[in-house]
């Protein structure tokens, strides 16, 4: 029997490329809104089959070996979502519909199921089905360079933006679409802090603007302070053990900056009207700022059997 429930007034949809992207890039934001009672839906576009493996005893799962890493990462993602308090997670078109394309320029880009090769309207159609069901007011994905140029991140951006366009034709367009971003001032502070560190993630870079994800502070629209959720974000990252080793510089930064690094995330606004904010650039502190969510599209029923 299908159990039908009514979704909360505030609904947030995130579109990510691989398992672990959600935790690294938006984990605190997801945990923040889930804890506040918003409905958080995560759509992951691939299983991450081409990822590196940092657990030696699992090396046989690699794409060049048993090619079972994708299946293993489904469990890692489920554990990460549990740490973040996110109960609604789907794979785009179902688990395994699209394959991890690997880094740009590799032969894996040409795999018949590579997400990079996906038909845009077909993939966007799968995401449109989620939008029709959940009716999110806010969508989060990457910018047109996929934050750092990975083909699957770029494709996730294209698919998300196309699905939003298709939803608009049906009168179901989200009020806002945000792209993940990193302010120039934050990067510069990090570069200064790590200048003498042995695990300097900025080694060889002297100018923050050389980094593909560097965003001028004035272009940032929202700063989500979810420092109260930094422990959940770190736990979610540790759930992705095959991808993020315990010695990762990410944890080194967390050890130095703690809640500030793990708990604060930034976004640019690609679609919609910026709500009230603060500071020199009027950064929003809430992704739903300026929205009358009660006056939005009718809340949609969702079946428990529909989560996949």
UniProtKB/TrEMBL annotation:
Record keywords, A-Z: Hydrolase, Metal-binding, Zinc
GO MF annotations in UniProt: N-acetylglucosaminylinositol deacetylase activity; zinc ion binding
Coiled-coil region(s): none
GO biological process: mycothiol biosynthetic process
Keyword Coiled coil: no
HAMAP family tied to this protein: MshB
Family note: Belongs to the MshB deacetylase family.
The name this protein goes by in its record: 1D-myo-inositol 2-acetamido-2-deoxy-alpha-D-glucopyranoside deacetylase
Species of provenance: Micromonospora craterilacus
Phylogenetic lineage: Bacteria, Bacillati, Actinomycetota, Actinomycetes, Micromonosporales
């Amino acid at each position: 029997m299908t159990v039908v429930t009514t979704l909360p007034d505030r609904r947030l949809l995130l579109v990510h490329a691989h398992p672990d992207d959600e935790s690294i890039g938006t984990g605190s934001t997801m945990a923040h809104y889930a804890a506040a009672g918003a409905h958080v839906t995560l759509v992951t576009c691939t299983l991450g089959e081409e990822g590196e493996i940092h657990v030696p005893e699992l090396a046989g799962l690699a794409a060049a070996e048993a090619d079972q890493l994708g299946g293993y990462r489904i469990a890692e993602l489920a554990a990460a979502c549990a740490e973040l308090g996110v109960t609604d997670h789907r794979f785009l078109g179902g688990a395994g519909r699209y394959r991890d394309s690997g880094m740009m320029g590799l032969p894996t880009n040409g795999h018949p199921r590579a997400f990079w090769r996906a038909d845009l309207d077909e993939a966007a159609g799968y995401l449109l089905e989620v939008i029709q069901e959940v009716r999110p007011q806010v969508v989060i994905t990457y910018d047109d360079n996929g934050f750092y140029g990975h083909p699957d991140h770029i494709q996730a951006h294209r698919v998300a933006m196309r699905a939003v366009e298709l939803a608009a034709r049906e009168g179901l367009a989200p009020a806002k679409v945000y792209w993940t971003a990193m302010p120039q001032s934050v990067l510069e502070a990090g570069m200064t802090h790590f200048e003498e560190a042995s695990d300097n993630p900025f080694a060889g870079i002297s100018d923050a603007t050389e980094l593909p994800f560097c965003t001028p502070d004035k272009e940032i629209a929202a700063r989500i302070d979810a420092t109260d959720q930094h422990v959940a974000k770190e736990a979610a990252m540790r759930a992705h053990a095959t991808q993020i080793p315990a010695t990762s510089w990410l944890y080194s930064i967390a050890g130095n900056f703690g809640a500030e690094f793990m708990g604060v995330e930034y976004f640019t606004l690609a679609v919609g009207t910026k709500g009230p904010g603060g500071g020199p650039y009027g950064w929003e502190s809430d992704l739903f700022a300026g929205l009358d969510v009660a006056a939005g599209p009718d809340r949609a029923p969702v079946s428990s059997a529909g989560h996949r």
